[in-house]
């Protein structure tokens, strides 16, 4: 029987840098090396539903990467890596089911071995599911012992507690409210509607696109000045039926009277942050005020899910002027180019994708054709999807730091050829729809060898107030055989376009904060 195992609805993404112990594992001789195994995600506890519980059992997950003892060597291969999971203490109490997605993993006498080969960047592993056997009582039933070995790095070990039972964490329901006094005041609430207590403590993370003024001593913040994320730990158990609300509030003020604020908060058993939670590192700055406390409440109005989103609107609703940003496609006739698609701007310099109706709409300039990404290409950026035979395209919004890319073939030179890029704000929030479209131009030139990175030259709509530190940097490059049929392609030239902002880079935000885990891979051509 194949399947996946989970952490009672919460999966680990705990960022731990492990330097390991001296010596190798499994009888291997480990040479002195600056490379170490980094355990990027591993759960402190695994919660296994009771026998007969219809709750979905989700995968036990591990994430590894290479690192350097001195903080360098991040792109140095770990070689001959093997992860070994000792589940022998669970015999007769919890069944182990290997996951079909990892055929290289084997199980013998309660020990699961997963050869991982060589790698250097984040590698994730979901090797098995745990299922409580009939008659196994609720509570702690054993441990998972993890040992990671490599031929060029010290052995790393970790231990995970296995608990039969499922905490079901609750929070406030998603709501929209009106700003009062010009700011949003948020006092998060949470409870446990499951069948087992959380004994390892509770972690609360509160985030927004705008800064908070709260500074609690039991909270860590993503930065010391004007933090937008707070992560607070409460060293107490959360029994079934318990519910609490914080005795202090987090205050968030929008950048201007026409903007709204969205605040997202999530709770999890300490040491078990959910996927993509973006848990803060242990050395993140701590608050300098008094501790944030908890007050017991009636939790019947809370909803199961472990996270919630609160939207605060100014009186009369939000009004934002979105301006599309034009750009130039540059290259030789017959070549295929990749072009960064600059996102729309607002008077505050930010961009909130939750306030627009779907992707950007592109009408290609005459003499050019939009092309799809090659079927076997790997890229973190989002590529535009051609439509109407390549005369049009729709361009979604890629993750912060990688953005959106338009692949174009320059078929012929057409004097004065222009296209358009259009943003569609939701409803009637935009008081100035005249600038929702901008011009795409073409610069055809000769000579030159293919350059390496996609780029675009903005022609309109750029905002000098766009937040710094979020340049458009999609790193994807096209394979040579996916261009003009002659094995040629050329990345567009020019200066970078308007900043490609992820949700977290917006000056204001409705719809929450998009948390992104970036998995970089070696590129492979078709």
Please characterize this protein's 3D structure.
The structure is a single chain. The protein is mainly beta. 0% of the residues lie in helices and 35% in strands. The strands form 8 sheets. It has a 7-stranded mixed beta sheet, with no helix packed on it. It is globular, with a radius of gyration of 26 Å.
In terms of per-residue confidence, which ranges show pLDDT below 50 for 5 or more consecutive residues?
A: 1-32, 447-456, 459-526
Q: If strands are numbered along the chain, what order do they take across the biggest sheet? A: 30-31-27-33-34-25-35
Radius of gyration, rounded?
26 Å
Distance between the amino and carboxyl termini: 35 Å
Please report the number of helical segments: 0
The main pleated sheet reads as: 7 strands, mixed
Per DSSP E runs of 2 or more residues, the count of β-strands stands at: 35
Inertia-based shape: globular
- Supply the helix-strand structural class: mainly beta
Average pLDDT confidence is 79
Percent strand equals 35-45%
Helical content band:
under 10%
